[in-house]
Amino acid sequence: ERNQEATIFVGNLDQQVDEELLWELFVQMGPVVDAKIPRDRITNTHSGYAFVEFKHEHDANYAIQVMNQIKLFGRPMKLNRYDQDKSAKNLDVGANLWVGNLDPVGVSDEGILRELFGQFGVMIQNTPRIQRDPETMESKGFAFVSYDNFESADAAKMHLNGQYISGKPIIVEYAFKPNSRERYGSEAERELAAKRPITAQQQQ
Questions:
Q1: Which of 46-60, 74-88, 91-105, 146-160 has the lowest mean pLDDT?
Q2: At 158, is the secondary structure helix, strand, or coil?
Q3: How far apart are CA 63 and CA 50, in angstroms?
Q4: What is the pTM (predicted TM-score) of this model?
């Protein structure tokens, strides 16, 4: 079982990067438990992201501070906490997106979505979350992404709707509310969100 609080997400990796190199790189920050690069089972290529688990949470935080945007084979690495910002997990303002037309094989785990959508802000509620068949655990071809503010959700929707992932253009819309034909993102929700106190994350 991965210790999520001591695990970081490493994105924008070149194909030349492998687990051994990541291990050697991040062990300089503190004791590493595991370095994993998800790979295509047929071609053995990876999608440019990895997970590095440290023994201690403070080493994971230190690695993000020191190594974020450091270039590896000419590409700046994008580092994030795997569990995202814990202080923002309860800030559900209604900035909830539905992401559809996902290739069930090409987008079989949340890593590539975390890299894409993480560029626009802090994601909450353990998202992105791919919806899966409860028996086979295979992707149903859509996912949910929640942010702690509407500005991030609007930016993600504007920039990522129609983007190609694994050869298919994804659809990004505000999700429907449970048991309702009304979507999230209404003016009333936005006004409520604007009145909420500013989080530590937004003050930085």
A1: 74-88
A2: helix
A3: 14
A4: 0.55
